[in-house]
Model the fold of this input.
Amino acid sequence: MSFTLRSVKVPPNSVSLDEARHRVFDFFRAACRSIPTVMDIYNLHDVVAPSHLRSVVAAEIRKHASVTNPKVIDMLLFKAMEELNNITEHAKQRHHIIGQYVVGREGLMQDTGAKDQGASNFLKDFYKTNYF
Done:
């Protein structure tokens, strides 16, 4: 199942911005089609929904929407294909996927109210200074 992307070779450079745009759409389709496989490989069904991963992929692509140089788009697309290949070939561990694509840049939301009710003042201060 993850061997389908092995045969993907690096395409030649895009001639125009329109061709690079079509390649980005093709990559997005391939990434979205591989999400169920990634969910199975890393056992993510209890952590995240496939729609969330799809929106993360779309957000990463939209982050570079202002790029208009086809060579830069090809380079970003190559990096994205390598990342997808590493994920589908199980070159990453589960916590890498959760940290990069599920939790994201905002980090884990700490629920300090429920766990600090029976804690001493020392532990409360310790938690405040050691959680970022």
The chain has six helices and no strands.
